[in-house]
Design goal:
Blueprint (H helix, E strand, L loop, with lengths): L1 E5 L3 H13 L3 E5 L2 H11 L3 E5 L7 H18 L12 E6 L4 H10 L3 E4 L4 H38 L11 H18 L4 E8 L2 H8 L1 H17 L6 E6 L2 E7 L3 H17 L15 E8 L7 H17 L5 E3 L2
Parallel strand pairs: 1-2, 1-3, 3-4, 4-5, 9-10
Antiparallel strand pairs: 6-8, 6-9, 7-8
Length: about 325
């Protein structure tokens, strides 16, 4: 363990340092509470052994500061990260062997105490107890962080489509709520929605089987992710249907993005004999823009994109259409 020793008596400090190091621990030393506090902030400690009476800052004040610091560090570590010195085992070293002082120390956050004159065997026992408790604490902390990490990963997984890796309808619902709040707070910047669908996908599945169909969905999703901006978000909307939301993008610009994506899928030249006249796998896309002058609700906006997609399908498929 790393032990910080705060003791203003030089002889006692040297003896304790040698004893602690002989027991196999690292020992940092300070001759008063102020220096001990600086060392603790810079290097941390598993255990602090502090004299009660010291110039500048006494042991009680040091203990309170360390507890406040530990608590604040614990709060900042609520997101997944590597555990650090969130908790420190605190031992008072004092000649004040009376219940009033001991109670005051415990209430300040101390875990144990040693009385002067100090017996080496007593120090050894106290450090063994500290090592056992800190070991249990670190194990518990590690398990808590691992659980938090797993929960964070699970939270991401339930918002992703398992097959394509795109965001799913649950994530879309949450994102629409975020957009709604943003529109209410900041007004309506331009948003564009691209709704797209693989042409004659049922026939593709019937011809090649569901495994090939799944592969086609994954390839399409990969191309979407590779060819949109970081601020754009792609979703698997359902079956063979995909949705892309583009913030701060006009309908005309989104139309160009949709056309680019259509051409990219077409150039893959994936065989699909039932998809005439091309005989290859293609997509149709519909685009709708949400602007300050447009009174649509978010649901109506997505429905408009879906209607534009339907228009593209009705006019021959493998097309891009803008809702007007």
């Amino acid at each position: 363990m790393q032990i910080l020793l705060a003791e203003d008596d030089n002889d006692i400090r040297l003896i304790l340092k040698a004893t602690i190091e002989n027991l196999g621990h690292v020992c940092l030393t300070a001759e008063d509470g102020i220096k001990a506090w600086g060392i603790y902030q810079a290097k941390g400690a598993d255990v602090v052994i502090s004299d009660w009476l010291m110039p500048g800052m006494n042991g009680l004040e040091l203990c309170k500061l360390i507890r406040e610091y530990s608590n604040s560090q614990g709060l900042t570590r609520t997101k997944v990260s590597l555990p650090g010195h969130v908790y420190t085992y605190f031992i008072f070293l004092t000649a004040l062997d009376d219940s009033a002082h001991l109670q005051e120390g415990i209430e300040a956050g101390a875990d144990d105490y040693l009385t002067k004159p100090l017996k080496i065997q007593e120090l050894t026992f106290r450090l063994r107890v500290a090592a056992r408790i800190m070991g249990l604490y670190q194990k518990m902390t590690g398990q808590a962080y691992e659980l938090e990490r797993l929960n964070a990963n699970l939270s991401l997984e339930v918002r992703r489509d398992a097959l394509t890796g795109l965001h799913n309808r649950l994530r879309l619902t949450e994102d629409l709520e975020t957009i709604k709040a943003s529109l209410k707070r900041y007004g309506q910047p331009s948003y564009a929605a691209i709704m797209m669908d693989i042409d004659n996908f049922k026939q593709f599945n019937d011809t090649y089987g569901h495994q090939a169909g799944d592969e086609a969905l994954k390839i399409t999703a990969q191309q979407l992710l590779a060819n949109i901006r970081k601020e754009d978000t792609a979703y698997r909307y359902g079956g063979e249907e995909f949705l892309i939301i583009l913030p701060h993008q006009s309908g005309q610009k989104a139309l160009r993005v949709a056309e680019k994506l259509r051409q990219i899928i077409e150039r893959l030249q994936i065989s699909h004999p039932q998809n005439l006249p091309s005989g290859i796998l293609t997509i149709s896309t519909g685009v709708a823009e949400l602007t300050p002058n447009n009174p649509w609700t978010l649901e109506e906006w997505l429905d408009a994109a879906d209607q534009a997609l339907y228009q593209a399908k009705q006019t021959g498929r493998n097309r891009t259409s803008l809702y007007r």
